[in-house]
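Exercise 7. Predict the structure of WRKY domain-containing protein from Carpinus fangiana.
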Amino acid sequence: MAAGNNYRVPLDFHEKEFADHSSAFELPADQFLMFDDYWVEEDPPSDASGSVQNPVYQANEVVESGGSGSSHPDGSSRTRERESGNERREVRERVAFRTISEIEVLDDGFKWRKYGKKMVKNSPNPRNYYRCSVDGCPVKKRVERDNEDPSALVLAAAAHCTLRRHSEADAIYTGAQFATRRCDTEAHTAAVGRPASLRLQAVFRTPAVRPPPIPLREMPIAIKTDEPKAQHYELPTSFFKLVLGKNLKYSCCYFSDKSNTLEDAEVAMLELYCERSQLKDGHSVLDVGCGWGSLSLYIAQKYSNCKVTGICNSTTQKAYIDQQCRDLQLQNVEIIVSDISTFEMEASYDRLFSIEMFEHMKNYKDLLKKISKWMKQDSLLFVHHFCHKAFAYHFEDINDDDWITRFFFTGGTMPSANLLLYFQDDVSVVNQWLVNGKHYAQTSEEWLKRMDQKSASIKPIMESTYGKDSAVKWTVYWRTFFIAVAELFNYNDGEEWMVAHFLFKKK
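Solution. The predicted structure, encoded as tokens:
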């Protein structure tokens, strides 16, 4: 674990379940990044509110999960319009999104100014027009209700094809800085106006320090795999037994009631995994990145006819799980120690799980292709990862502020909430859910509380691991890490950083 494309997270403390129609997520491989058809844009008549008050709207919701439902005139229509003198401006590049939403102002991290609306032929729903409120930014978008499903919104966004394309040098802020809205006009325009294939990655580096970003599809499955292993797991299991809950679940827990204990929240999230994955007793199970076996052991105990295989990259984690199996007299668990990026096997499973492992990965296309080989034709894969609602970015060690990357999460990734929708080459999404970030905030608060309560027992562990001279420093590092996680996921009422759940089937 560590301290988003946008689903809106509910305003209450609980997570929201979104539509389970796979067609809502499916996009042809040659269309989900770029659309080749024209978006012909008219200057719509401004409505009263748009022309008089000209309000600035803070966006609230977006899901990048489908094609546009808007109609587009064919080439002959455009020719007739040009000949009649009613030529309209053409925007060649656009991206379309579809989401279930009660509100019509969509959030992608920026503010949008409504400048007009008009009625659309053969539709009872008006089409609303927005432009970016940042001076000089050319990006506009239109939003309308889906004609067939009024609960769904269709968004199309574009920049005029005649505008100067901003260079890499214009994008001077990192994805993390965009996520916290620390961006200037140039960087903002570059982020929104650049080609969709680059904008999807939402990873912008300082050119003087880093080369242009490499698409995730062109990266290795994982990078610097030894460093995060040492960063998180050089501390012995005894430390985590003092800080984590009884199940040693080192990932977001689910507090269905604020009065729940950490142990209750661990079990609640583990049960949610089983429910959402449609797990049944007798299934063969693969737990990819099993950690200290919280899910593997939970399934093995509750579903005694399930054969569970876990993959971890730590011999100490395997030793702990093996001992737990002996203590609990479990015969249906096998743990494999391996680097998932290079691991291969011939076996296949009914249900596959990956809990907070994708954040350590880069090339999700190759990763999901690898995992799909371990799936039967009717298998399901359940993935849990933390995310930002809008922006995906790398954890990079560029300056002194990047201490989480340096000490805890080297080579890591912060996915966006819908990033995995763009990697459906070998699997396809059956369902997606979001869990409000407050659940993770409370999880980390509980870890911090236990660390403080058991400081006397933790002190000798820190001294034996880091040395007496550095024990206090590393105690502070770990406390600060837990505080940072809690603050990050609690930000904006848990609606900025959060947890995504995906259910995939094999293609």
